[in-house]
Amino acid sequence: MSATPQDIMTANLFFNAAFPVMQVLLDDDPKFQTKFKDVTGTVQFGAKNGADLLACHLIFDHGKLTVVQGPAKTPDLAFTFPTVAKMNALLRGGLSVPSIKGLKNVGLLSKVLSLLMGLMIMSPKKKPKDLAGQSLKVKMSLYMITRALSQYNKLGDPSMQEFCQRQPDRIYQFTVENGEDKAYIACYLRIKAGKSKSGHGIYTRRSPFVHFRFCSVVGAMAVLLKEVEFVEGVEKGYVETIGSPEYACYLNDYMAVLQGMLT
């Protein structure tokens, strides 16, 4: 059975926007730093789509991760789901069982499963209690959503493409403050005449067209977990938007669509 265009879009967003965020876990979480410091190997993740296989593969090299679109030639491990919808369901935190080739690589299998579970920290149901966990959740969520916004355009969503085509060179900056550190977490989306690109840190070559400024990690958590609506978050001082309110609303609407697809 062939997947719907919506299922294929969702799967590609997981491959292109969510999977690369695993690198944050490998860099920032001491548990994963230790676990993957000596790991090398290739892991394929995919689903059957009629006679085709929709897949990407993850290349691990001593704590560094490269995500490559398409099947691997000789994966050490291969997860294959019977349908794209079932793969998406698992990645959203639901129940689905893939077939697994390479079970002899027990150590790699165990580590990769733990890393996939680590992605679930971005789920709305996960509420870390300490600052380290909250910071990890906010950082991963913002990195993923800015990547997803760019990919939504590149993967051909008509509405997002129209939104990007009507804009000159514009920067949408996101920052989260922590005490005196004004860019404790920072990432951005650049849109230029139909093209889009996401990045980490502060974009320094152009002032932001819209700046989403979260005043604390706790405030960012409240908005991202939808404990408060965005407008209420502004009223409570959790977040401030500087720049075009009209385009801040447009982008906020696209972020809500993508969060609905990926969580």
List keywords for this structure.
alpha+beta; 263 residues; single chain
Structure description:
There is one protein chain. The protein has helices at residues 5-18, 22-28, 30-36, 84-91, 106-119, 131-154, 158-165, 217-224, 230-235, 245-262; strands at 40-49, 52-61, 64-69, 77-81, 99-101, 170-178, 181-192, 195-200, 210-214, 239-243. α1 (5-18) crosses α4 and α1 packs across α6 (131-154). It is 43% helix and 27% strand. The protein has a 5-stranded mixed sheet with strand order 3-2-1-4-5. A 5-stranded mixed sheet has the order 8-7-6-9-10. The model has no long low-confidence stretch (mean pLDDT 95).
Report the order of strands and helices.
HHHEEEEHEHHHEEEEHHEH
Question: What low-confidence regions span 5 or more consecutive residues with pLDDT below 50?
Answer: none
Based on CA atoms alone, the radius of gyration comes out at 19 Å
Classify the oligomer.
single chain
Percent in helix: 40-55%
